[in-house]
Amino acid sequence: MLSKFDYYKPVSLEKATEYLNENSETKILAGGTDLLISLQKNKERCKHILDIKAIPELNRFTYTEGRGYFIGAAITVNQISEEKLLREKYPAISQGADALGSYQVRNRATMVGNICNASPGADLAAPLLVYDAKVHIASSEGIRATDLCDFFTGVKKTILKPKDLVIGISIPDVERGDRSVYLRKSRIKGADLCNVAIALRINPENKLSIALGAVSTIPMRLFELERKIAERELTPELGDWLAAEIKTYINPRRDSIRSSPEYRYLITGVLAKRGLLKLIDKEGA
Amino acid sequence: MCDHEVKTNCFEYIDSQMPPVPLELNVNGESIYELIDPAMTLLDFLRVSLKLFGTKEGCREGECGACTVIMNGRAVPSCLILAIEAQGADIITVEGLSKNGELSILQQEFIKEDGLQCGFCTPGMLMSAKALLDRNPNPTVDEVKEAIAGNLCRCTGYKSIINAILSAAKREREALSNG
Fold first, then answer.
1. Can you list the domains of chain A with their CATH numbers?
2. If we measure between CA atoms, which residue out of B172, B169, B170, B144 comes closest to residue B158?
3. The domain that contains B38 carries what CATH number?
4. Which residues of B touch A1 (CB under 8 A)?
């Protein structure tokens, strides 16, 4: 590792944003499962490390009736996996958490880190997108919130500025009868990055939401496709139409080492249909 | 693999020369206080400073699981943790498994079931398995597979390792019920 850095672990949000304001070339450390790889491979350099795990607000993991979940930036992926109520209410999010990395990595990696790293195939992105998650961002100027669907701007790029610190993600509450599923295709079972990831959700009013990962430069919510689906009836027969239609919304890259674009086009359709059928099956269950 | 433009060996620990910071933690039941390099990983701290060579260095990117240790009860990749992040933590490495010179039940079962050949993945496998049995004394085959999915083995084959973990779980449960 060529970076020479000092280490600061503040216990208040004010101290953290102040530090970010005063020290350029600071990297924010939560789980470290992405940051420490790029630092050790010298892909990234920094002069300061700001460990955010001791800030109380960032350790918040709460559910409020009518308002939903707040998941702080220090909450690990396994903490999310282990949360029973979240699994009941937001199955796609728990399934995304189960799929991320390996068990050891999930003990360190955080949900917010997964989002901030902004990999197109981030396992938690698509599930959060279908639940209209909001990202809460702190800086010395105050706290603001932005919709997750406006958060990603490119491969590993987000709207975050160098002095921003994400404090957590909020997910609106869901009503009884809301159901969702997260499906992914990877080369091997066990720990592997995905070739295609899809999250589908049907709310009690029978509105379908769809988000995709690993098939474009950013994880994306397919609002336009959702509008087209809203004009149709949610029946098993819709599956074939969806499998064909969804391919026009993706743009997989040609030089991927994991799979060819042709394969990704095919699998996206397969997973979309499979997901829809699974959700229709669960109706009334 | 290093960045092509920077040919420095990523795998070799080089002191960053930054002012040392105090680290206090517990490793295998022993309290340790040392001044350390803030840019040192927990893996380097265990191997370079404490000379605990049981914990192995494989990929240094959290893929292979060879560096797995137990930190505050959870299996973690020590290559992706700064040593200073382990401030106040309880760490168990493979050296902490045997008691008074006697191998743990889990280690004995690895030997009995031929759960190792070259042995490089074994410390990581053992730590992932111990963390699993500590939280779930009666795991299913699938739960065992999930727990060690992040531990790569290139020679033994996973079957004997899974058998070793399952029979250790059984023996540990029996030992517990026999008081």
1. 6-51 (3.30.43.10), 56-285 (3.30.465.10)
2. B144
3. 3.10.20.30
4. 10, 14, 16, 39
